[in-house]
Design a protein that fits this description.
Elements lengths: L4 H6 L3 H12 L15 H15 L3 H20 L1 H5 L14 H4 L2
Helix pairs in contact: 2-3, 2-4, 3-4
Length: about 100
């Protein structure tokens, strides 16, 4: 049983995480603070329901997995200097989540 939030995404096959990332990317209101709907809870909830439907998962699980993935992305982003120096390999999902760097 997975209890820690950071463990959620790592227990899911990379393929499912890739699908979730692609689905979230379609809804800027879920990650971009400059999107007018970012602060409209009803719109974000609607978006999560759509993401969940497309992923064949519950909205709560998708949201939890997304939080875990977003946290990992932020952590990996801080490690870019080590990656550039060849001391560390890049995280496989980093390029798929790079759209977050352009979001406000």
């Amino acid at each position: 049983m997975v209890t820690a939030r950071s463990d959620v995404a790592s227990c899911i096959p990379s393929e499912k995480n890739s699908i979730l990332i692609a689905e979230v990317k379609k809804f800027p209101s879920l990650y971009d603070t400059s999107d007018p709907n970012y602060y409209v809870l009803a719109e974000r909830n609607k978006a999560w329901l759509q993401v969940a439907e497309n992923c064949n998962e519950s909205a709560d699980l998708c949201h939890l997995r997304w939080k875990s993935l977003r946290k990992r992305f932020a952590k990996e982003k801080r490690k870019i200097p080590e990656i550039l120096q060849g001391r560390r390999r890049p995280w496989a999902l980093f390029p798929k989540m790079s759209f977050l760097t352009s979001a406000s």
